[in-house]
User: Fold these one by one.
Assistant:
Number 1:
Amino acid sequence: MKRQMPSTKELEREIKDRVKSMFRKDFEDATEEEIYRACAEVVNDVVIDNWLTTQKEFVKQDPKCVYYMSMEFLIGRLLGNNMINMRGYTEVMDALANLGVDINLIEDQEPDPALGNGGLGRLAACFLDSLATLQYPAYGCGIRYHYGMFKQKINDGFQEEVPDDWLQTRYPFELQRSEYEFEVKFGGWVRYENQPDGSTKYIHEGYNSVIATPYDMPITGFDNGMVNTLMIWDAKPKEVFRLASFERGDYNKAVEDMNLARNLTEVLYPNDNHIQGKELRLKQQYFFVSASLQRAIDKYLRYHNDIMRLPEKVVFQMNDTHPTLTVAELMRLLMDEHGLGWDDAWEVTTHCVAYTNHTIMAEALEKWPEDIFKGLLPRIYMIVEEINRRFCEEIKAKFPGDDEKVHRMAILADGQVKMAHMAICAGFSVNGVAALHTEILKNVSLHDFYEMYPEKFNNKTNGITQRRFLMHGNYKLSDWVIKKIGRGWITDLSQMEKLTMLLDDKKSLQQFMDIKLENKKRLAKYIFDHNGIAVDPNSIFDVQVKRLHEYKRQLLNILHVMYLYNQIKEHPEMDFYPTTFIFGAKASAGYENAKLIIKLINNVGAVINNDKSIDNKLKVVFIEDYRVSNAEWIFAAADVSEQISTASKEASGTGNMKFMLNGAVTIGTMDGANVEMYQELGGENIFIFGMSSDEVIAHEKNHDYNPVDEMNKNPHIQKVLSQLVNGNYSIDNPELFRPIYNSLLNTQCTERADTYFVLKDFASYCEAHEKIQEAYKDREKWARMALSNVAHVGKFSSDRTIQEYVDDIWHLDKLELK
Ligand code: Z15
C-alpha cells in the first residue's frame, strides 16, 4: 500500500519530535541545519516504506528492468524533490511556516549533490525521475565521488575552483548496502589452462583489487508510491585486516590496494564534452561497470536459473561511451564466471546492451592508449582483441576489398582502443539525442557504421522533468497553470497545449507576466545578495547559463554586449529597452580559453555596470557557481534564453527546454533540439539566426572560411575586436585578452582561426537581438510569445523521452502498485 505524507498538523508534531530525538533540543533552539535533517528523516520515513513495497512487488512481478549506466548523475537536492513527489511539499511548507520557519532556508541547508558536469549528468537524473513516475523498474548505476563538481568562486573576475565536500556531514538520502559488496580487480596478468573438455580456463593473477560498496539512494516517482534505486559505488581496500597482521609479503600489496581504493572514487573529472585520457578515469569506469554488472547478474540469478535468458529481464543502457567496458566485462563475467562459451556470451551481451551518443565533438570521443588499457585490464583487453578480430572479419565480408574502411572502423587501431566503435559493434541500439544530431551521426560522423548497421540507429530527443523545473523551481507559475488547466500536465506535459486558449485573453496574459515579474524580483534579490549589483526587474532578463565551452559561444554573446555598449554610448538618444545580460558557467579546470572568457565577461560587466552615462540601460551579471539549485530560480526569471551554439555542435541541449517550460523566448541557432522547438513553436515564437548545420559542415569540409573577411566587412566587429586588445576592458594589462583575439583571427598551425564561426554569425545575431528589442516593447505581444512557449513545451518532457526508450529499445514492464 502506498504510504502518504502526514497532514500539516501531524507534520508539525513529527518535525518537533524529530528535532528532539535527534538533537536533544526544543524546536525553538534548533539550527536551520538541524531542522533540515529532521525534515529529511520525516520524509525518509514515508519514502522508505514505499521503497520496501516497490522492491517486494519487483520480486513478485519479475518485470524487465533497465540499468542506466552512467559516470554522472547530477541529481541536485533531494529534500524538495522528494516532498513534491510524495505530494507533501505544501504541507511541510505550511507546517514549517506555522513553526515560524521559511522552507527555502531549510532546503538551502542541503548540499547540492553534484555528481555530474552538465547536460549529460542532468539528463540521467531527469530520466530516473521519469522512469519512477511512469512506474518502470530501473536502476541508476554510478560512482559515489567524494568530491563532486567543484564549487566556483569568482575572484577579481577569475574562476577559482574549490573542492565540493558534499559528504562532510552524513547525507540523509543515501543508504550503505554492505550486503551487496563485490571485488573488482586491476592489473596483473592472465594465465590460461586448457581443460580436458577442450575449453580454456583463464586465471587472473598478480592483480590489485578493491571492494566495491554500494550506496543506494531512493528515486521517487510522482504520487504513485514507486521508489527506484540509484546505486552509487564507493571503494574500500580489502586488505585492511591483513595490513595489521605480520604477513610481511602481503604488506606492500596491501598498501597498494589501500591507495588504489583511496584514489578511485575521490573526485569527479570536471570536463564536459572533453576527455583527458587519464588512467585513473579508466579505473573509475571499470570499477563501477564491473560492480554494477556483478550486482545485476547476482540479482537475476537469485530468481532465475538460465543465464541465456538474461536479455528477457535486463537491459544495460550506456550513457555515452564512458561505460562501454560494460560490453567486455559482461562477456568476461558470462564466460569466466558463469561458464558460457564465446558465441553464447556474445548472443546474450549483444541483446543486453544499448548505446547513446551525446556529442559529435572530436575531443569528447574516448580512445584509450592500448598499453594503458592492456596493463590495467589484461583479461578485458584479450576479450576486446577477440571482439575486434571478429568485427573486422565482419566488415571485410560486408565490404570486400575496402581495407581503408576496416581500418577506420576497427576497435583497435593506431595503438588505441576506440570505445565508440566497441559500443556500436556490440550494442543492439545506437541513438542520438535530437533529430538533427541523429541525422549528423548517420550521415557524417558515424556514417561507416550506419552503412553497416542501419537498423541499429534511432533517435531519442532529450527531455526534462517538469516536476523539478516547474513545480519546484517555479511554484507560482505551476500553481497558475493548475488553476487554468488542472493537474494533468504534471504527468502528461502535452496537456500544456490547453494554455493556447488563453493566448488572446488579456487578463490571463497579464497574470502570466506578473508571475514572471515576481520571479525576476526573486532573482534580482539573489543577484544583489551575491554580486552586490542592483538590477532592474523591469529590464529584459537575457540569460545564458550552461557549461563554458567555445562551441556554446558565450564569446559571441559578450562580444555582442560590447557592441551594444558602443552603440548606446555613440547614440545616447537611441531607443533601447534596458537589458540585463546574465551569465552562469563553469569552465573545466584546465581549459584556458574558457577561463579567459569568464574573465572577459566579468571585466565587461565591471566597466558597463559602473558607467553612469548609459543610464542603467545595460547590466552584465555573472552568477557565481551555477548549479542545479540556483538554476531553478534562473530559468523561472528569464525573458530571453540564449541557445547560440555553432550549428551541428550541440547534440541536443536541455537548458533550452527548461527555459521554454518557464516561459522564456529563445534566441538560437538551428542546432540540437532548438530545431524541434522551432517546429513545435512556429517561426513567430522563437528568434532563429546564423548558419545552418549544413553550411557549417560544408565550410569545415571545404576549408573556405576566413574570419578576417568577416571582420573587414563589418566596422562594428572591427571596433569590438580592437577593444579586446586596447586595454578598454583591462586597463592594467591590455594584452590579457590577446589569446581570445588570436583565437578569432590568427590561424594556428593546428586549427583554423575562429573554429566556431563567431564572426561569421555575428551580424545575424545582432539582427535577431534587434527583433527581440522590437518584440519586447509590445508587452502584450511578448506575453503571447512567452506563453506560447509554455503551451508548446509538451514534447520536451523526459516522460515522453522515456516512453520512447521503453517502446523502441528497452521494452520494460510497468510495475503495478496499489
Ligand atoms: C555532456 O554534457 C554532453 C555530451 C557529452 O558527450 C558529454 Cl561528455 C557531456 C551533453 C551534450 O553536450 C548536450 O548537447 C546534450 O543535451 C546532453 O549531453 C544530454 O544529451
Number 2:
Amino acid sequence: PQRYSPAEIEPKWQARWDADASLYAAEAHDSGKPKYYCLEMLPYPSGALHIGHVRNYAIGDALARHMWMRGYNVLHPMGWDAFGLPAENAALKNGVPPREWTFANIAAMKKQFQRLGMGFDWSTEVTTCLPDYYRWNQWFFLKMFEKGLAYRKKSKVNWCPECCTVLANEQVIGGRCWRHEDTVVELRDLTQWFLRITKYADELLDGLEKLEGWPEKVRTMQRNWIGRSEGAHVDFAVADGDAKITVFTTRVDTIFGATSVQLAPEHAVSKTFALEDDALRLKIEGLLAEQQKARETDELGAIEKHGVNTGRFAVNPFNGERVPIWVANYILADYGTGAIMSVPAHDERDFEFAQKYGLEVRRVIAPVDAPVDATKQKLERNTGILRSAQVDAEDVVGDLPYLAEEEAVLIYSGEWTGLGCVEAQEKMAAFAKAKGFGTATVTYRLKDWGVSRQRYWGTPIPMVYCDRCSPEEPLPVAESELPILLPEQIDITQTNGSPLGRVAEFVNAKCPKCGGVARRETDTMDTFVDSSWYFYRYTDAKNSRVPFDSDKANYWFPIDQYIGGVEHAILHLIYSRFWTKVMRDLGLIKNDEPAERLFTQGMVIKDGAKMSKSKGNVVSPDDMIGRYGADATRMYALFAAPPDRDLEWQEEGVAGISRFLGKVYRLTTKYSTVARMAVGGSRVESSAKEQALLRRLHKTIAKITQDFDGRWHFNTSISSIMILVNEITANEAAMDAGEISPAAVAEVFRGLILLLAPFAPFFAAEMWEELGGEGVVFRTAWPEVNEELAREEEIEIPVQVNGKLVTVVRVPAGSDEAAVKAAALADPKVIARIEGKTVVKVIVVPGKLVNLVVK
Ligand code: ANZ
Ligand code: ZN
Ligand code: ZN
C-alpha cells in the first residue's frame, strides 16, 4: 500500500504467522541454548480481553520478542484459568452449560490474542478445566493427603452468601468477598478440606529475602500476611479449679506487670464460665456479637473495647499472684491462643482497656540509661503500683511502652529485675519451660488454606466416605482411578449445598478399602489450586504419565520474568510459592521459588477512574484495533505511562502513535530502495551529519537494550525511537543529496525497524520485508551497539575564577546549568584556587563558560 494501513498489513501477517506453527515454539529443553521463560499471568476466560490485558500482554510479548532477538530459547506460553464461578453464574442466567460457555469464550479470546499479534506458543496451551489438566490437581491432592498436607477439619470459615460457597482467608478483602465488593462475608462452622500451607510459613517468609527481583511492595504484603511473631506461651492456672489458660505473649519480660488475663469470647474457658452463669453468658454472647460484626466489616483494629469481669482469678506462675480473668471483645479466638495477659503499663490496647475499667497499671520496665533511682523514686512514691485512675496516659504510656526492647531493663520483677528486656524474654521463657508452665513459641497470622468449595465448576476432590469400614476417616481414591471426572449432565439451578451432591452417579462410589458402597466428596477445589502450578505444565503440557517431566521443568525453571497484576500479590503468588515447595519436596523439581523476577503492571484507567461497566468508561480493545490497528494499540499501552504506573487511556494518544507509525512507513518506503542496494556496503567518508545520525541510532539502541535488561522504561524507549525518527526526518534533504551514504541509510533504517520489532510486530515485519531484510524480523539478531558512537558527546567548557581562566572541564553535550556548575566546582584546579575563599557567585553561560566570583 501507498500509505500505512494496519487493516491491510496486520491480517496479512497474522495469516502467515498462523501457518507457521514453529514460529513462536520453544525449542526442546536439550537444545543447548540458554533459556528464557517469559510468562504473563493466564487470563480467566470471561469472554473478552479488556484493555488491562492488552497492557499486560504487550509488556510480556515485547520482552519475549526481544529475548528471541538476543538469541535465547524463549518459552512464552499461554493458557486459560478456566474453572470458576462466573461460568456457573452465566449458566444460571443464560441456560448455557458452564463448559460450553467457557469454551466459547476461550475461542473468542484466542482470536483476540491472535488479532493483537501476541507471540504465544500455543502448542503448550493449558486449559485448567480439561480432565488432562485437573487430574493432576487430584493427583497432587492425593500426594498431599498422603503427607498430611491435606486434611479435613471443622472450623469457622468464611461464607459468601452471594457465591454460596466458602472462601479462603485470602479471598476475604476488608471483610468482603473478593468477587463481591459489596457482600459482607459471614462466618460459619463447617467441616472443610485444608492444605497445610502453615507448614511452610517460615520458608515462605525467609524466601522473600532472596526474591530481590520481586517488587518490595509485594514482598512486604506477603511478610505481613504471614505475620510471624516470636513470643512465649505461659500457663496461668485458674484459681479454685483445675482449668488452665495458656496465653500467647510477645513480651513475657513484662509478666510482672500483668494485672489481668483476658479471654476471647469463644475461648474454651469463657464457654465453661458461661455455662455456670447465665448473666455472664449473655454478656459474653454480646461481646462475641460485637467482635463478629467488627470482623465482618474489617474494623477490628478500631473496635470499641468492651469486656466483662468473670469474677474468677488466674494465677501468674512467675510470682504466684492472683489476677482477675476478663472476657474481652478485642481478643480473637483464632490468633495465638485466644488468651492474653494484660499489661496496661506497656501495651497501648491494654492501657486503654485498663483505663476504662479501672484496672491496675504497673510499670515493670525502665530505660537502660535512665537514672534507675529516679524511676524507683517515682514508683515508690506510688508504691510501685499505680491505680490507672490516678495517672494520666502520658505518665504511663507516654514513654515507656515505646522503649525499644534493646534499651530497656526490668524493674519490680523479682529475681529478673535488672535484666535487659531481650535477655529476660529468652531467660524467662526457658525458665517457664524448665518449670513446665510455658515455652518459647512462634505464632503466625497465616492460616491453612481452605480449599473446599460448594460449587460445581471446579476440580472434584478425590476422596470418598465409607460408613462401613471407615466411619471417621475419609479415604483417598486410588491413583489409577484418576481423573475423577466432573459430570456434564447436572442441574446447577439450585444453589443450596454442593451441586455435585445431587448427581447420584457421581456420589455413588465404590469404597477403595472394603469395596462396598461409599459416598464421594462433593465439594470441588478452590480454583486457585489450578493456578498454583499451571506454569509447570507449560513445560510439558501433553504428558499423560506425570504432571510434567522433571528434566523439562528443571531446564525452564525458575521463570525468568513473571508479569501480572498486583491484585495477586497474596492470593496466587503465595499459593504458587507454597505449591512449588511441596513439589520440590515431592522430588519433582529443584527450584525453591517459581519466579526469579516479578513485575506488577499498573492499572489502565479512563477519565481518572478504574474502568467498569457501571461507570460506562470501558475501552474495548477491539474498537481500538479496528480504528488504529493492533500495533498502535499495543504500542500506546507501553508508551502512555511507565509500565508500573497507572495509565490513563486517551484515544487521542493511540491516534498519535498511529500517525507516528505512518511517518515511519513513509520514510521507510521512500528510502528502502537505497537501503536495499547498500546493505553491507562500506561507508567511505563520513559527513558530520552522517556521524550525528549514526550516533543517534546507537544511543537509541543502547538505551532500549538497557531498558529490556531490567529498567523497563518502555515509555521512554518508545520516545527515544520517536527522537530518532525526528532526526531522520531532519536529515531527509541530506539523504536525498547523498550527504549521507547509502550504507548509513541502510544501517539507520534496519536498526530502526529492529528496534520497533518488539513493540509493533506487524509493522516491523512489513517494513523489514520492504527493506529486503532476510528471515523473520523478530528472529533477526538484536542490533549491536557501537559503543564508540553511543558514547555521549562531550564538550569543553572554560572555567574562570574572578575572570581569569583556570581550567577547562569536559561535560556531556546538553548538560544543564547545575551539572556544569557541579563539574566546575569539582575540578581539582578550581578547588585549589578557591581554597579558603568564599564563592559569592557562580555565573554559567550554558555550553560556553563558567565564572566563579570569590572573596
Ligand atoms: C503481653 C504484652 C505486653 C503484649 C506488652 C504486648 C506488649 P503480635 O505482635 O501481633 O503477634 N495478643 C496475643 N494474642 C491475642 C489475641 N488473640 N487477640 C488480641 N491480642 C492478642 O501481638 C502479640 C501480642 O498481642 C501479645 O503480646 C498479646 O499482648 C496480644 F507490653 O502480651 B502481648
Ligand atoms: Zn462472593
Ligand atoms: Zn469401606
